[in-house]
Design a protein that fits this description.
By secondary structure, the chain is an all-alpha fold. It has one helix and no strands. It is rod-shaped and about 95 Å long. It starts with a helix and ends with a helix.
Length: 63
């Protein structure tokens, strides 16, 4: 009887650990996707500011 209970507890713990691991994997994927999106945003922002600087310089040169 004790072995049966221990087996059931062990199986239930394994299920819970597997579910938690799967949830952490999904959170990890989402985190790294968010970081990649932030990196792209900052890269595009830098390009925008460079273009803006070039336009401002061109306007000054025209004067």
């Amino acid at each position: 009887m004790s072995d049966k209970i221990n087996g059931e507890i062990s199986d239930r713990l394994k299920e819970l650990i597997d579910k938690e691991y799967a949830a952490l994997k999904e959170k990890s994927k989402a985190f790294f996707a968010m970081r990649a999106a932030e990196q792209k945003y900052h890269e595009k922002k830098i390009i925008f500011y460079k273009i803006e600087d070039q336009l401002m310089q061109a306007m000054k040169d025209e004067e």
